[in-house]
Amino acid sequence: MIEVVCLLIFISVVLYALFDQGFAAAIVLCGAFWLSGWYFAHTTVATECERLGKFYVGKNVYQCSKIETIEDK
């Protein structure tokens, strides 16, 4: 996932530097930031649930319970 974000950042730099497309570069960069935020949020929640069985958002604490494990085929 980090590789995809880095690739999107590189594409935005190329769009801006070589093709002078600032708006397109900004759109691609926003996509990269959104994707990295989504990835890190899901990773943090999964890590907290595995370690503590709970995670918190602000003053709220949420209880986690494992439903099933999906095995690789």
Question: Describe it for me?
Answer:
- The chain is mainly alpha-helical.
- The protein is built from 2 helices and 2 strands, in the order ααββ.
- The protein has helices at 2-17, 22-52, and strands at residues 54-57, 60-63.
- The chain has a two-stranded antiparallel ribbon.
- A hairpin with a 2-residue loop joins strand 1 and strand 2 (60-63).
- Helix 1 (2-17) packs antiparallel against helix 2.
- The radius of gyration is 18 Å and the shape is elongated.
From the N-terminal CA to the C-terminal CA, the straight-line distance is 21 Å
Overall body shape: elongated
With strands numbered from the N-terminus, the spatial order across the biggest sheet is 1-2
The parts where pLDDT drops under 50 for at least 5 residues are none
pLDDT averaged residue by residue = 90
Q: What's the Cα radius of gyration?
A: 18 Å
Topology as H/E string? HHEE
Q: What proportion of the residues form beta strands (DSSP E)?
A: 5-15%
Number of helices: 2
Structural class: mainly alpha
Total number of strands = 2
Helix content: 55-70%
Main β sheet profile: 2 strands, antiparallel
Q: How would you sum up this structure in a few lines?
A:
The chain has two helices and two strands.
List the helices and strands and how they pair.
Blueprint (H helix, E strand, L loop, with lengths): L1 H16 L4 H31 L1 E4 L2 E4 L10
Antiparallel strand pairs: 1-2
